[in-house]
Design a protein that fits this description.
By secondary structure, this protein is an alpha+beta fold. The protein has a single domain, classed as Winged helix-like DNA-binding domain superfamily/Winged helix DNA-binding domain (Arc Repressor Mutant, subunit A). It is built from five helices and three strands, in the order H-H-E-H-H-E-E-H. The protein has a three-stranded antiparallel beta sheet. A hairpin with a 2-residue loop joins strand 2 and strand 3. The two termini are about 25 Å apart. InterPro entries: ArsR-like_HTH, HTH_ArsR_DNA-bd_dom, Metal_resp_trans_reg, WH-like_DNA-bd_sf, WH_DNA-bd_sf. Keywords: DNA-binding, Transcription, Transcription regulation.
Length: about 100
């Protein structure tokens, strides 16, 4: 995983509403949730949810699928796995934080 992508994903998850949306979708499992059900669970206006979903989709953390007239949102589990794996990698990332001299 590229460090720039990881940074964008972590920045997206650094917003309280987006983190709530993402956790709700992760907990919903692979079936995901219709946008309306997601909106009810996170209790935000539709326009606010749309804005935050766009950011999560843009960073690859969430995917949407249209089923007839319903828009289904789901967590992109491979992206989540990659991000968690990146965070757990030792000795990578090019930074010097935590290195001993």
């Amino acid at each position: 995983m590229e460090i720039e992508l990881a940074a964008r994903q972590l920045e997206a998850l650094g917003n309280l509403t987006r983190l709530k949306v993402y956790r709700t979708l992760v907990r919903a499992g692979h079936d995901g949730l219709p946008v309306g059900a997601l909106q009810q669970r996170v209790d935000v206006p539709a326009s606010t949810l749309s804005h935050h979903l766009h950011r999560l989709i843009h960073t690859g953390l969430v995917v949407q699928e249209r089923r007839a007239t319903t828009l289904i949102c789901r967590a992109a589990y491979p992206a989540m796995t990659d991000l968690v794996g990146f965070l757990g990698e030792g000795g990578h990332g090019g930074g010097s934080a935590g290195s001993a001299s």
